[in-house]
């Protein structure tokens, strides 16, 4: 993030000899590109050129050839290894003779960066001294296993600041910037400073090593005799040698220090003085991860924590942390919620009375004080006790509203050791709404405890528990909104995978899911319209939005939807929905929210991202419900956001997610509508928005939606009409439009 920004000519001198080798030459190129990141390359500021040398120097590109950092780095990548002997002195003489090719003739400071192993086959001392006498600053960068003595000769003074090691690319780039800052570059950013630190210069050296003494034969004075003796055996060995030194670097204050992100958010630096926060689920209400969820419902809410031996101390502490984070996310200063907390094992204890704390801080302290007790898991007894005593009116609760819905959230991870049936009925008799939270292996148990799979929240692993905060909030608030989508206008299309990858048995499960989902809606022309598309390699319309006008007709038509087999192409299905379902011609209504639910096995999604984006661009929400294994990044590209993605492990579990999916669809049905998305005008008509209405600007067509061709000449049907027809349209005309459309279609 730090760049030397000044008028400066920089010339790289790359060793391309055989002693370097092709592999190390490639590393030299990458390192040169890394150094370019520390330079503000621009025609008026830093210019860069390159010479490769071996037996002879070769100009790769001059300083005036490439004038942006990207161009320079791309050209460095294309440089080819030449090979030859290491004639560093000859390369320096070339620079003394030719200067910096394409440079600005010493009118700006000149910097030479030599990247070599320092194993020259000729003397470099004299030409190196002459280069430095011309006021050229020389940086010597060691590559591979360099000969540091020669690089010391090449580098400018002081050598600690001008000797770099390519093996530590980031440190070397920082060292280059730090050295230039002290001479030619602009001063460091505010708060930054150049400091020295101990470092090492490493290389391989060949040393003699005594391998041992061996018997050897020597002559003697007697011509026919030999003499034995012990002789030392010496061998040569290459060892890594480290030379302690001092290096320099620029250190800047971390914009994330001290931690500016609240509620467990992660700070990500952006440059020297900016940052952004990655927020946990349920946070992100502002830049610093303030709580963003709002309960949007007034309830008396009592949490019942399992503190038995079955849940373990670790599980109890996890639920305490979850409870704190949930309440921090949903409770504001004027929260309409009254919150209480109880815990149970053999006995039940109401630790925090309902509405006892009105501020979050004191509530958090009380939750922290809860202790694990151990004991048996008597969930049935605990629920019955809470039903009798958890919501009793006392003077403490004198300011509470008596007409608020009452919700109990059970947090457990162990099966009940007593019967829960009687307690469940007892709670229903007192109009208490029960929500169960537990791990995935507790799904069946929670369904038995709550009596309804739609009143359960399950998580796959400890971290996933915290991702369930928005889902739990919706479950709690659904008690205050039991009608769901019954009275909400909506155009809804299901696209169901009917390929061989799903199979007939699982296709029937998907079809049953669509069927039971339709029971949540009031189906007629004025409220909810539903369409169904099945797809394999091609998509087929089972029925369109305007085909059926009652729940019974839709349910009967779903049962007739065929299994297709073959490969799957979700992209063709979404394109089919866009072009043949969500159009005015096929019964889609202007001014009504539109939702597509894609039910898929995860196969054939490769071509679905672009059609899904096209639907979203035209104001149509896309939910992706995937069953089984699939690449999450592919799913997110299609869904566009995690909040529009539901990933289910098996077809048997599909039923448990129906309530959650319906809630999300209902939320979309209540969102603001752009009357011109998707375009309600037919035949290339242009939709023009007005205050609370729209009109279609037609070309060669007429009618509210440009549905009738303008006839010219002596036709008795209608007189010649002007080229542009303007018809005002508002949502109040939806009923009349829908019926008129049906009459027109029949006619």
TrEMBL record:
<dbReference type="InterPro" id="IPR013032">
    <property type="entry name" value="EGF-like_CS"/>
</dbReference>
<dbReference type="Pfam" id="PF00092">
    <property type="entry name" value="VWA"/>
</dbReference>
<comment type="subunit">
    <text>Forms monomers and multimers.</text>
</comment>
<dbReference type="InterPro" id="IPR002035">
    <property type="entry name" value="VWF_A"/>
</dbReference>
<keyword id="KW-0732">Signal</keyword>
<protein>
    <recommendedName>
        <fullName>von Willebrand factor A domain-containing protein 2</fullName>
    </recommendedName>
</protein>
<dbReference type="Pfam" id="PF00008">
    <property type="entry name" value="EGF"/>
</dbReference>
<keyword id="KW-0245">EGF-like domain</keyword>
<feature type="domain" description="VWFA">
    <location>
        <begin position="300"/>
        <end position="476"/>
    </location>
</feature>
<dbReference type="InterPro" id="IPR000742">
    <property type="entry name" value="EGF"/>
</dbReference>
<feature type="domain" description="VWFA">
    <location>
        <begin position="9"/>
        <end position="180"/>
    </location>
</feature>
<dbReference type="GO" id="GO:0005509">
    <property type="term" value="F:calcium ion binding"/>
</dbReference>
<keyword id="KW-0964">Secreted</keyword>
<keyword id="KW-0677">Repeat</keyword>
<keyword id="KW-1015">Disulfide bond</keyword>
<dbReference type="InterPro" id="IPR050525">
    <property type="entry name" value="ECM_Assembly_Org"/>
</dbReference>
<dbReference type="GO" id="GO:0005615">
    <property type="term" value="C:extracellular space"/>
</dbReference>
<dbReference type="InterPro" id="IPR001881">
    <property type="entry name" value="EGF-like_Ca-bd_dom"/>
</dbReference>
<feature type="domain" description="EGF-like">
    <location>
        <begin position="672"/>
        <end position="707"/>
    </location>
</feature>
<dbReference type="GO" id="GO:0007161">
    <property type="term" value="P:calcium-independent cell-matrix adhesion"/>
</dbReference>
<dbReference type="InterPro" id="IPR036465">
    <property type="entry name" value="vWFA_dom_sf"/>
</dbReference>
<feature type="domain" description="EGF-like">
    <location>
        <begin position="253"/>
        <end position="290"/>
    </location>
</feature>
<dbReference type="GO" id="GO:0005604">
    <property type="term" value="C:basement membrane"/>
</dbReference>
<feature type="domain" description="VWFA">
    <location>
        <begin position="491"/>
        <end position="665"/>
    </location>
</feature>
<dbReference type="GO" id="GO:0042802">
    <property type="term" value="F:identical protein binding"/>
</dbReference>
<dbReference type="Pfam" id="PF12661">
    <property type="entry name" value="hEGF"/>
</dbReference>
């Amino acid at each position: 993030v730090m760049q030397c920004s000044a008028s400066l000519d920089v010339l790289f001198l790359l060793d391309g000899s055989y002693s370097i080798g092709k592999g190390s030459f490639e590393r030299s190129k990458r390192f040169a590109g890394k150094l370019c990141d520390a330079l503000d390359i621009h025609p008026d500021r830093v210019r860069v050129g390159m010479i490769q040398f071996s037996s002879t120097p070769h100009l790769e590109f001059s300083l005036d050839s490439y004038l942006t950092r990207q161009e320079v780095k791309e050209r460095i990548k294309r440089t080819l290894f030449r090979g030859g002997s290491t004639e560093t002195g000859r390369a320096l003489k070339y620079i003394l003779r030719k200067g910096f090719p394409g440079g600005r003739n010493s009118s700006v400071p000149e910097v030479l960066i030599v990247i070599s192993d320092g194993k020259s086959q000729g003397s470099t001392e004299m030409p190196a001294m002459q280069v430095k006498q011309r006021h050229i600053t020389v940086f010597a960068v060691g590559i591979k296993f360099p000969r540091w003595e020669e690089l010391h000769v090449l580098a400018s003074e002081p050598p600690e600041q001008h000797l770099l090691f390519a093996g530590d690319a980031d440190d070397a780039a920082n060292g280059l910037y730090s050295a230039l800052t002290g001479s030619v570059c602009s001063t460091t950013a505010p708060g930054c400073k150049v400091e020295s630190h101990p470092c090492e210069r490493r290389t391989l050296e060949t040393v003699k090593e005594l391998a041992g003494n061996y018997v050897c034969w020597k002559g003697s004075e007697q011509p026919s005799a030999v003499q034995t003796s012990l002789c030392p055996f010496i061998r040569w060995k290459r060892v890594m040698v480290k030379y302690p030194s001092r290096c320099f670097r620029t250190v800047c204050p971390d914009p994330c220090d001290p931690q500016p992100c609240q509620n467990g958010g992660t700070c990500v630096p952006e440059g020297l003085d900016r940052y952004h926060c990655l927020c946990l689920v349920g946070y992100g209400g502002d830049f610093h991860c303030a709580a963003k969820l709002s309960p949007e419902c007034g309830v008396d809410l009592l949490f019942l924590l399992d503190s038995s031996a079955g849940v373990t101390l670790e599980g109890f502490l996890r639920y305490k942390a979850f409870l704190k984070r949930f309440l921090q996310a949903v409770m504001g200063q004027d929260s309409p919620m009254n919150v209480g907390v109880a815990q149970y094992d053999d006995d039940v204890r109401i630790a925090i009375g309902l509405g006892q704390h009105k501020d979050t801080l004191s509530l958090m302290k009380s939750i922290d004080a809860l202790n694990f007790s151990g004991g048996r898991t008597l969930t049935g007894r605990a629920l019955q006790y809470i039903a009798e005593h958890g919501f009793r009116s006392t003077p403490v609760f004198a300011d509470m509203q008596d007409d608020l819905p009452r919700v109990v959230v059970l947090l457990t991870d162990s099966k009940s050791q007593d019967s829960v049936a009687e307690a469940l009925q007892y709670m229903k008799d007192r109009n208490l709404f029960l929500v169960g939270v537990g791990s995935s292996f507790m799904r069946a148990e929670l369904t038995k405890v709550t009596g309804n799979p739609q009143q359960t929240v399950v998580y796959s692993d400890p971290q996933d528990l915290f991702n369930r905060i928005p889902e739990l909030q919706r479950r709690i608030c659904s008690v205050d909104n039991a009608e769901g989508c019954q009275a909400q206008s909506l155009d809804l299309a299901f696209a169901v995978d009917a390929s061989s990858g799903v199979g007939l048995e699982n296709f029937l499960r998907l079809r049953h899911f669509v069927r039971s989902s339709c029971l949540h809606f009031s189906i007629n022309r004025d409220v909810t319209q539903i369409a169904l598309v099945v797809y394999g390699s091609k998509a087929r319309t089972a029925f369109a939005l305007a085909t059926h006008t009652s729940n019974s007709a839709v349910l009967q038509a779903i049962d007739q939807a065929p299994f297709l087999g073959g490969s799957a192409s979700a992209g063709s299905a979404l394109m089919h929905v866009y072009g043949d379902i969500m159009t005015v011609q096929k019964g889609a209504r202007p001014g009504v929210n539109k939702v597509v639910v894609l039910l898929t096995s995860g196969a054939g999604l490769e071509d679905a991202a672009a059609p899904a984006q096209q639907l979203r661009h035209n104001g149509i929400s896309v939910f992706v419900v995937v069953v089984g294994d699939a690449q999450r990044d592919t799913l997110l590209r299609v869904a566009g956001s995690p909040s529009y993605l539901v990933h289910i492990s098996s077809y048997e579990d599909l039923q448990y997610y129906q309530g959650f999916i319906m809630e999300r669809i209902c939320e979309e049905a209540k969102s603001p509508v752009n009357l011109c998305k998707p375009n309600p005008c037919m035949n290339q008509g242009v939709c023009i928005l007005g205050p609370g209405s729209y009109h279609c600007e037609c070309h060669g067509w007429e009618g509210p939606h440009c549905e009738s061709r303008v006839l010219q000449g002596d036709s008795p049907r209608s007189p010649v009409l002007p080229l542009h027809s303007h018809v005002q349209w508002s949502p109040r005309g939806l009923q009349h439009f829908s019926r008129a459309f049906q009459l027109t279609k029949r006619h």
